[in-house]
Amino acid sequence: MAETNFVDYVKIYxxxxxxxxxxxxxxxxxxxxxxxxxxxxxxxGGHVILRGNKDxxxxxxxxxxxxxxxxxGESGGQSRSFGADGEDKIIEVPCxxxxxxxxxxxxxxxxxxxxxxxxxxxGGRGGLGNWHFRSATNQTPRFAQPGEPAIEKTxxxxxxxxxxxxxxxxxxxxKSTLLSVVSAAKPKIANYPFTTLEPNLGxxxxxxxxxxxxxxxxxxxEGASEGKGIGLRFLRHIERNAILLFLIPADSEDVMxxxxxxxxxxxxxxxxxxxxxxxxxxxxxDMLDEELIEEIKQTLPKDIPTTFFSSVTxxxxxxxxxxxxxxxxxxxxxxxxxxxxxxxxxxxxxxxxDVDEVDDIEIDWEDEEDNGK
Length: 373
Known about the structure:
Layout: E1 9-15, E2 48-52, E3 67-69, E4 89-93, E5 97-101, E6 107-111, E7 117-121, E8 152-159, E9 163-169, H1 175-182, E10 200-205, E11 211-216, H2 231-234, E12 241-249, H3 255-269, E13 277-283, H4 290-299, E14 306-308, H5 317-328
Parallel strand pairs: 1-3, 2-4, 9-11, 9-12, 12-13, 13-14
Antiparallel strand pairs: 1-8, 2-7, 5-6, 5-8, 10-11
């Protein structure tokens, strides 16, 4: 993985800005010796905001930005002058990014659309100046509110690739070859297992200038939902796909057995994946004659669309794209967004964050009451 720029998992420390203190100023000038309270309000602390950006395909830009700090609000001033709000910190993320609490693994939020903004951490509210506390019985209040403190949290950002079609299959099922043939993507192809070590995304051209996105997910093996192989790391990328295209090679000893194993792994990882539309495609069909194809057809499930194709000879590719487009065009309630289960935290993978390196982490309240006087 050292040679790739694809990063789909980062852990960062975030801190919103603290609110500015209200002013306890009393108005004084030459001809108005007792002008009364005129302290202004403190400014709001900056938010930490996530913003979806369709031009980003990875989280690599956050890999080395471990501390994300929003600006603090300024204190209020005399003559009811409000303090300036702290600067918001906007984190650009690719569409499909999910955020978890790094300590508990709890799901916090996700960003699925371009330009969508989600406030991850709210900035502290600014304190009220003493002008708000004047009354008939207390005409010269000499106190003001301090601003609210900042919020600190270490979060995990996890990218789940968004695509119309996700390729699901065992290693060497022909997923990368198919993607390279029907799109301009150039995934690594070789005759050994786990050639694909990262998801690859390609745009497949269709008739009448139409197109759809296809994602090649690294191979899944039996037990992937329990952490075997590398499937567990990339099973999350299947959650964002509208349709799952199961690829099983024609030289498989038992097509239905492999199909059921793949279904079981998806169910063990997230049972809602079984609600997605499915297509079963037999790859490498150039190895079969018509008689064998008919025999295999008799064993295939009747409740999902099936097809045969060969990426090498091109046979069946047009029919495969027609079938995919037909399924995409159906007016059905697709499960693009699933219920995100809490992340299982592994202490051995935790990254240490030296909070002492961050300037002004500890909030000092000792002279808040004097601010703005």
